[in-house]
## 1
Amino acid sequence: MPLAIAGIYAALSVLTFTVYGIDKSAARRGTQRTPEAELHLLALLGGWPGALVAQRVFRHKTRKQPFRAYFWVTVAVNCGALVWLLSRFASA
């Protein structure tokens, strides 16, 4: 995997992990939450490894079945796009 792509995944994972932490804190305080669509977008763009770790660390978004189903769809779509992108690099 090209270093730039790995760096993008790492940066998005850190960002996504942070956003999950902020959302969990807001849930506990009863203040304004991060929209689920934003959490899914971050996962779709490549932050899903950070989201997966954050779900375990913060015990956040682990029980909502519709959310989890959409989350795994974003992971599958992102991984499919990554495979396609890497295959394009390999053939170039």
## 2
Amino acid sequence: MKINFLILLIAALIPMILGFIWYNPKVFGSAWMRASGLNQEKPNNTKMGLVFTLSFLLCFLMAFIIQFMVIHQYSVFSIFMNEPSAKDPNSEIGKYLADFMLKYGQNFRTFKHGTLHGTMGGIMLATPIITISALFEQKSFKYIAINAGYWIISMGLMGGIICAFA
């Protein structure tokens, strides 16, 4: 199996696009600012170009790992990763992998399935991380809910795109 970097780049854009909507003052932006202790009157010394560039790179890393959560066929290849003959299409393992992909290569490769696993990742990975940090930072439940909701939806959409098109 080959990694489709174009789809991963597209999936990495999803949190950026959703963030413009989600954190808009007319959606959750005003509530998020109040919950996080920020306000629009404070001078903004943040270098937004750097923030968006780093955010995109981090979203790409997320997309890269999400593909292994949502595309089950990768687990078969990981079993044979250290076998030297796995890359030889004429070897026993090479023939097995080719036959496996022919029979099962498209199983569970849908947007719906990827969205399920991406959402599960958002609930079971992103939400606990956000919650633990927020508890130590003494943030409110509203803060946790807004940020966790954003990442659950982002990871769900990323998983759907990656699973269906990678």
## 3
Amino acid sequence: MATTADMRTGLILKIDGNLYSVIEFGQNKTARAAAKVWAKLKGVDNARTIEVTWNSGETIFPVRVEKKNYQFLYKDDSGYSFMDNETFEQITVPENMIDAPQFLKDGQEVGVLINGETDQPMGVELPDKIVLKVTYSEPGVKGDTATRTLKPATVETGANVNVPLFVNEGELIRVNTKTGEYVERVKE
């Protein structure tokens, strides 16, 4: 069994029959009372966000999670389809279980979190940074590189990303999938 001392960001806990991922946590210590451990939790199998407080040393119930590499195949009415790179088995996942579905492109490698108890998918994580091609952007003007002014651009997945003025249509850019922000221009 695990205790509150084993708490860490990303840990998945079972609370009242539901699964929650730890977003952030901390300790409150007072001079008179025992220390308390608090955690902000995001629902894995529901869209709720809750805060829970335990006494220090109290038992918590983590869920064993495996991360497997899958390849994105396609999107249809039933959801997003992925293929296991080792067994070639296919799974379909609803959109709400994917970190940043607007940045998924065909053939992209992703990490699928699998519940170790039920072998069911719990979520899909994209790489932190991915390279995408700009399919539409207003043309840049020579000399507009001195300021940090941004303009909207559409990438190959259909998502909109704010890019610096010097980025033009047809160029490759690196995008942070967690924040949706432009990182840098990529040379081919």
